[in-house]
Amino acid sequence: RPALGEEIVKGAELKKAETVDKSAPAIDSDVKIQKIDKEARLNEISSGAELKHVETVKDASEPKLPAAAKPEDIKAVVSEVAKGTDLKHVETVDKAAPVLEEGTSFKKIDKEARLNAIEKGVELSKPEDVKDRSDPKIDADVKIGENP
To answer: Is 68 within 8 Å of 74 (Cβ atoms)?
Structure first.
């Protein structure tokens, strides 16, 4: 590995590369760009502009809503709903229940006893054989010092 470090420090000679800079905005040749006086333009905007008065015949800003139903149509619908109708009987298949594989069994638990056991807690025992692999592996020839 020391040879690799020497190669990195030594560096490598790079070849000359020709690049084409395409980062400038593409502007058509017939477009004329002129400078503006920013201060004058801002003063012009802040001074405002005189608006001309326009006579409006109809306010077109209101939404166009469909005409309301005729009163006799409303009465017909209400009487039909009030009269009611006979509905057909329909058989349904309830598929909301959980599907258990064949041979699977379950038992009812005492919820109160389970919650009491959880609340009481258990005493944990310390494991006898622990293989702590959290330390980093550092080769013997590596020297560690303060970062300047």
So the answer is: no
Under a CB-based contact definition with an 8 Å cutoff, are residues 27 and 33 in contact? yes
Sign of the C-alpha dihedral computed for residues 31, 35, 39 and 44 taken in this order: negative
Give the predicted TM-score (pTM) of the model. Answer: 0.20
Q: What is the pLDDT of residues 109-147, one digit of tens each?
A: 999 999 998 899 888 888 888 888 888 888 888 888 887
- Distance between CA atoms of residues 98 and 95, nearest Å: 8
> SS in 3 state form for 105-143?
CCCCCCHHHHHHHHHHCCCCCCCCCCCCCCCCCCCCCCC
The token pair that represents 119 in the structure block: 């609340």
